[in-house]
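Sample pair:
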Amino acid sequence: MNTYKKIMKGVVAVENAVMVVATFAILVLIFINVIGRFVFNNSFQFVDEFVVAVFVLVSLIGAALACREDGGLIGLSLISDRLTGKARLIQKLIANIISLIYCGILTYQGVVRTVVEFSQKTNTFVMHWPLWIFTSFVPISGIFLLLHMVENTINFLEARKAKEAE
């Protein structure tokens, strides 16, 4: 388990670095676009295309980072907060299994879509960059989601075991 936790600390460091760079790039490009609208009365079309693509990356990695914390993702806990003991364990495991399945499907479908776009040599409309580059953000983020969902489950089980040992 300690090895997995060390690996996950490295993954989190990479995710945080990507989030900082991507968010900074989005802010700078949007600022340049706003200045372009006021100074040149024209916006830079590539900014919109790039920002939308990078926003997908930021959103999914943000969800993965939120997944680390129990209750970090949006959820309805009306019933689950009132459960204790075995009922809470079963509910949490079922919820995590469903989430793992969802993350697996997201990752798989992202890989399929990326491969299709790579094989068809599809390009973006404005920048004419290969579209698979931006589509690859989905399976990459899906892998991060899977890793953090496993980490969340392990942390829950360890906390439960420590609580029972007391």
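The chain has five helices and no strands.
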